[in-house]
Amino acid sequence: MWLTLDDQSPLSLNRQICSQIRALILCGDLPAGQRLPSTRQLGKELGVARSTVMEAYDQLLAEGYLESRGGSGTTVALGIRPQPPLQAEPAASGLPLAPIVERHDPPGLVNFQSGVPALDHFPAVEWGKLYRQCCESLPASALRYNSPAGVDELREAIAGWLLRMRGLRVDPGQIMITTGATQGLRLVARLLSRPDALALVEDPVHRGLVEVIARAGYDVEGIAADSQGMDTGQLHCLPDARAARCAFVYVTPSHQYPTGGILSAPRRQELVSFAHTRNCMLVEDDYDGEFRFEGTPISALRELAPERVIYIGSFSKILAPALRIGFAVVPARLVPRWIEEKQFTDVHTDALTQRALASFITSGALERHIWKMCKLYKRRRLYLLQCLRERFGSSFSASGQAAGLHMISEFPAIQFTDTVLATMQAHGVRAVPVEHHALRRTGAHAHQLIMGYAHLSEQAIERGVAALHAALSTVLNTSQPPTLPR
Questions:
Q1: The total number of structural domains that make up the chain
Q2: Diameter of the chain by CA atoms?
Q3: pLDDT of 6 above 50
Q4: pLDDT at residue 296, as a whole number
Q5: Nearest-CA neighbor of 285 among 247, 255, 315, 313?
Q6: How would DSSP label each residue in 406-441?
Q7: 54 and 70 share a domain?
Q8: Which residue range(s) make up the domain with 206?
Q9: Which residue of 32, 125, 215, 240 sits 20 to 30 Å from the alpha carbon of 353, by its own alpha carbon?
Q10: For residues 407 and 425, what is the distance between their CA atoms, to the nearest angstrom?
Q11: How confident is the model at residue 156 (pLDDT cuts 50, 70, 90)?
Q12: DSSP one-letter string for 94-119
């Protein structure tokens, strides 16, 4: 019998023999009633122990592919019909193909991706020590199912941390632990759902979060954002019938994503007034408010209307996305329904990680880490600005750089089309245009790039800006155009 065994295969030899004989039966090369070699004979042919062949035969006997009768040896079972070879399934016309996620950039490419912290500075040793201590000191009862609202120690720790870092005075009972900010928004959408519900969001906006809201059954409408955040004056332009459908308004008031604008005080008041008038909620996503480099810390929108604002936070940008820990500060009247919704979503967020994070916060380690990262990110932000000014001079402008992990670079002479982006990648640099996050593709942001810098070393930043200059010079068909000085 022609079988080929591979000593380097992760499959054991008996499993290889079993699968190959099964395949020969199913394709018809071993027809029903065909007698197989004895285990001793096949073992000699293949150079394996007889017991190895016996294990393979026993498995095929158990599965019904073989039959064994005393004195008749082992034969292929009767009634098994050969199967036609599998055909490649044609792509369904009209259906969108699933996006291909590129997990690794090509070697040497500098990716100015936004929202990625300096993961090589994650306090792994301190985190691991606290995690181990938590596991060693936990009573067995703590390993049972936990409250959907979260571990009490973490909720209390976050309440104290919000007061120290953001000036927010919050009842720990209103803090709901989530598996990241994305789940927090998903739970908000489920909780506030109503027939024919409408959600208003900033435009441009993180497209992934729009997808979360839309998949919850909402109609999503964008309200233009500028250097002062959402243009709340446009709320008055909504037809009454449409405004009445609004379940919530999603905003990033401390550092608008992606433009970096800060929601001004008059607009905050106007937004709160709209929420009261239309009986809707405001969802405040404070996704990177801990990192501020210019001016005084920005107060939270929740301070103006605690009963109207659901405040969402996460530790993905502060520590690492892999932790999948976030939280929401929920008005007291919504707490019971939130807990019920969370219960039937995933029961509760990983309780061991919650306890470790609680220890990390109460020990002061989180705040030490934030201050350390603030210094690092401020240095990298300044270096990025320096490199851009050296390469592009006055032919670019920067905005949104007062806080967070990214800034906006605008190049009036360039529209970042797919062709331009491909040229950039060919030169070894990647960045996402602001226009890609616009709900209305009017071209208002066609000249702007989102440039994340937190995860990049100074050497990578310098290399990336040089590659960007070379690429944009190529686009303008000259190595040293007047608009792109060296």
A1: 3
A2: 95
A3: yes
A4: 67
A5: 313
A6: EEEEE-TT----HHHHHHHHHTTEE-EEGGGG-SS-
A7: yes
A8: 122-367
A9: 215
A10: 20
A11: very high
A12: TPPPPPPP--SPPTT-EE--TT---G
